[in-house]
Amino acid sequence: MALKSRNKVSPNFNMSSMTDIVFLLLIFFMLTSTLVSPNALKLLLPNSKSKTLEKQTISVSINKDLDFYINENQVIESNLENELKQVLSQQQEPAIILHADKTVDIEHVVKVMDIAYRNKYKIVLATKPN
Question: Measured between alpha carbons, how far is 112 from 122 in angstroms, rounded to an integer?
């Protein structure tokens, strides 16, 4: 009495599931790359283990020469508050990410934070991950 197996293993490999995974990864990386907005100014940021979770609306940068930038546009320090009000006037939940060079005195950082506090803007200090 000869018994035959009903289940045969197919030696062919189906690539359709692999292509699905590749397309999902492609879509994932395309979406996440559009959310990254690198800071165009070269700053030495302080180190930190925490991560920024706040949604970025604008970036305020202070370089080592004490030049102030809103996004990539240079602004005079005395006009910083007025410029921020103009840029953030259309935002429902205005938020600022502050990029300050490691060598900048804390008084300049506090000045920007004070402007954000007076106008009820959320502010996050950017750091470089360890």
Answer: 11
Confirm whether pTM is higher than 0.85. no
- Asked if residue 127 lies in contact with residue 54, where contact means CB atoms within 8 angstroms, the answer is no
3-state secondary structure of 9: coil
Residue 90: C-alpha distances to residues 49, 70, 113 (Å)? 33, 16, 20
pLDDT for 39-84, tens place per residue? Answer: 555 555 566 666 555 455 788 999 989 899 998 889 998 899 998 8
Domain 47-129: CATH architecture, name and number where available: 2-Layer Sandwich (3.30)
- State how far the Cα of 75 lies from the Cα of 126, in Å rounded to an integer: 19
Which distant-in-sequence residues (6+ apart) come within 8 Å of 111 by Cβ?
77, 80
The helix, strand and coil proportions of the chain, stated in percent and rounded to the nearest 5, come to 35, 20, 45
Task: Map out the domains of the chain as residue ranges.
Answer: 47-129
Cα–Cα distance measured from residue 61 to residue 41, given in angstroms and rounded to the nearest whole number: 8
